[in-house]
Amino acid sequence: MSSLLRPLELFVYTFNLHYFIKINKAISVAYFRETFKYGSYNCIWNKKSN
Predict the structure, then answer these.
(1) CA 41, CA 8: separation in Å to the nearest integer?
(2) Does the model's pTM come out above 0.85?
(3) CB atoms < 10 A from the CB of 2, how many?
(4) Which domain of life does this protein belong to (predicted)?
(5) What is the C-alpha separation between 24 and 48, in angstroms, rounded?
(6) Which of 22, 20, 2, 1 is nearest to 12 (CA)?
(7) What is the rounded distance in angstroms from the CA atom of residue 20 to the CA atom of residue 26?
(8) Residue 33 and residue 6: Cα distance in Å, rounded?
(9) Cα gap 49→24, rounded to integer Å
(10) Quick one: average pLDDT of 30-50?
(11) No. of H helices and E strands in the chain?
(12) Closest to 34 in 3D by CA, of 44, 45, 23, 26
């Protein structure tokens, strides 16, 4: 039983890790995109006000 459970555990672990990394990457890409957009808007706005 335990010999069958071990590879399954390993598979689930690697599967979860893979998706965790994918989700993290997606979140960080979205975060950087938003902050970059916000930053460029601020630059434009500051130039207009000055």
Answers:
(1) 49
(2) no
(3) 6
(4) Eukaryota
(5) 36
(6) 20
(7) 10
(8) 40
(9) 37
(10) 80
(11) 1, 0
(12) 26
